[in-house]
Amino acid sequence: TKTLWLVLSIVLILALIFPIVQTVIFISSQDANAALTPQEHLDAGLKYMEVDEYNLALGEFTQAIDSDPDFLDAYFERGILYQLAGEAGIANAHFTLVIRRDPDNAEAYYHRGQTYLALGDLLGQASQNADAAVQFDSLIEPGPLLNISAKEVQPAVMQIEDINLDVENNDTNSPAEKELSQIELDRETQVVNPFQRALEDFTQAIEHKPDYTDAYFMRAYLVLNAGNFNQAIDDLTQVIAVTPENTAAYGLRGQAYYQLDRYTAAVDDLSKVIEQGDASVDVYFYRGSSYFFLGEDALAVQDWTAALAIDMPQFLYPSEMRVWSGW
After folding, report:
1. Residue 16 buriedness (CB in 10 A; 0-12 / 13-18 / 19+)
2. What is the DSSP string of 38-91?
3. Which residues in 135-164 are b (16+ Cβ under 10 Å) and which e?
4. Chain CA centroid to CA 22, Å
5. CA dihedral 118, 119, 120, 122 (to 10 degrees)
6. Residue (of 75, 123, 81) closest to 98 by Cα position
């Protein structure tokens, strides 16, 4: 009986002490975290991102910004985080702030261009609804981080803070108030084409970083879809010169050659994609169509059959549809 009473007493004491110990440890960790420099918060956030702990990374980037409102690296990385989470609008706002403070930042231009593409896709989806009246600027609004972590973590509950736009200025109105007024004016007077904005940003990224192959590729993708095939070929040639193993670049350049009736060059590029086992329905279709115009009917049929085994080609030009329907 005495032994049982002793055991129960120990258990009771531990039960009373344990919450106190937990509280002390928590407070100590909070104090230690508060003592971190902005750079240390940024580094901690990057480490969390490496292990897919995105919500914890959000907290670290936010603390870095709270500690130093002019810490552009923290804004940039938090923008990357929102971009990964599918929050293109708020990511765009982050990259815009970085560009305003650092107009030579090629990475910020590139990633903002990516967000414009995402926002353009959202507008396209909205326009399919006859009742939709979505303006581009309405998409650039603060939003919570989506839970994109592969691991189970607590959902983010933080809203993004107002971005600090303070700069030295002797005028009576604060820079933030002027910035807000200008944004409202822009919303009332401009119709924004997100794809054009993306093209401009990729171009800026290239101007500030001439060997930026990712920016060349994305600009080529845009101009190809806009029908500027020569520009697409030039940009993709730059990509291939630096990354000759880039089958996606060969695939797009092959399609551009096809549109310019340069069928032999198209076959050469598209064959490289197929040889690497990365062929899509479009690659087989365009190579087959190139063979068709080169008079190689048997090879054309072979490629078209391979394309159909994958899927029906989508978004074909009228001339391509005639070739396909006449087969």
Report:
1. exposed
2. HHHHHHHHHHHHHTT-HHHHHHHHHHHHHH-TT-HHHHHHHHHHHHHTT-HHHH
3. ebbebbeebbbeeebeeeeeebeeebeebb
4. 40
5. 90
6. 75
Which amino acid belongs to residue 74? Answer: A
- Residue pair 278/247 in contact by the 8 Å Cβ criterion: yes
* Per-residue model confidence as pLDDT tens for the chain (327 residues): 667 667 677 777 777 776 766 665 555 555 555 578 999 999 999 999 999 888 899 999 999 988 988 899 999 999 999 999 888 888 888 898 899 889 999 999 999 999 999 887 765 554 555 443 334 333 333 333 333 333 332 222 223 333 332 323 334 443 433 442 443 345 334 446 788 889 999 999 999 999 999 999 999 999 998 889 999 999 999 999 999 999 999 999 999 999 999 999 999 999 999 999 878 888 999 999 999 999 999 999 999 888 888 876 554 544 454 454 455
Q: Would you state the structure tokens that stand for residue 196, as one six-digit string?
A: 């054009």
Cβ contact 312:304 at 8 Å: no
Q: Is 159 helix (H, G, I), strand (E, B) or coil?
A: coil
Structure tokens at 50: 């490496």
Answer yes or no: are the C-beta atoms of 58 and 155 closer than 8 Å: no
Give CA torsion, residues 119, 125, 130, 134, to 10 deg: -20
Q: Which long-range contacts (CB under 8 A, 24 or more apart) does 131-139 make?
A: 135/187, 136/191, 136/192, 136/194, 137/183, 137/186, 137/187, 137/192, 139/88, 139/89
What is the per-residue burial (b if ≥16 Cβ within 10 Å, else e) of 48-79?
Answer: bbeeebbbbbbbbbbbbbebbeebbbbbbbbb
The number of beta carbons lying within 10 Å of the beta carbon of residue 186 is: 11
Q: Which of 119, 98, 118, 120 is nearest to 109 (CA)?
A: 98
